[in-house]
Amino acid sequence: MKIPEKIKIGYRDYSINLINGDVIDGNSVCYGNIKYDDGQINISTKYSKDQIECTFIHEVLHGIDELMETNLEEEQIRKMAKGLCYILKNNKELFM
Ligand SMILES: [Zn+2]
């Protein structure tokens, strides 16, 4: 998967920033985060390619959740992102 520089989620445009180091959200170090109001998705590149791709999916799901007002819990986003990563990884031909 190629991580794009930008992604449009509904009417919102997000810039994707690959961060060569830690992404800090509040007091915690995380794989990535999303800033809805600033239209920014930050992804730490200090992890494996698989992890970076899953972080991208995870943050996009947060963006969809925000857009669609589904109010999913972090745990639900985490699990859905993991499931979606498995699908994308194992069915590459579907998404070419
Ligand atoms: Zn999250």
Helical residues, percent:
25-40%
The general outline is globular
- Domains (count): 1
Strand order of the largest sheet: 1-2-6-5
Can you count the beta strands?
6
Strand content: 25-35%
Number of helices: 2
Alpha carbon gyration radius: 13 Å
Query: What's the mean pLDDT score?
Result: 95
What ligand molecules are bound, each kind once?
Answer: zinc ion
Biggest sheet overview: 4 strands, mixed
The stretches of 5 or more residues where confidence is low (pLDDT under 50) are none
**Helices and strands: which structural class?**
alpha+beta
Query: Could you spell the SSE succession in H and E letters?
Result: EEEEEEHH
Distance between the termini: 10 Å
Overview of the molecule:
The protein has one domain (6-95). It is built from 2 helices and 6 strands. It has helices at residues 49-68, 74-90; strands spanning 6-9, 12-19, 23-25, 28-30, 32-35, 40-44. The strands form 2 sheets. It has a 4-stranded mixed β-sheet with strand order 1-2-6-5, covered by helices on one side. Strand 1 and strand 2 form a beta hairpin. Helix 1 (49-68) packs across helix 2. The longest helix is centred in the middle third of the chain and has 20 residues, at 49-68. It is globular. The N and C termini lie close together (10 Å). The model has no long low-confidence stretch (mean pLDDT 95). The structure holds zinc ion (ZN). Zinc ion (ZN) binds at residues 58, 62, 74, 77. Residues 58, 62, 74, 77 line the site of zinc ion.
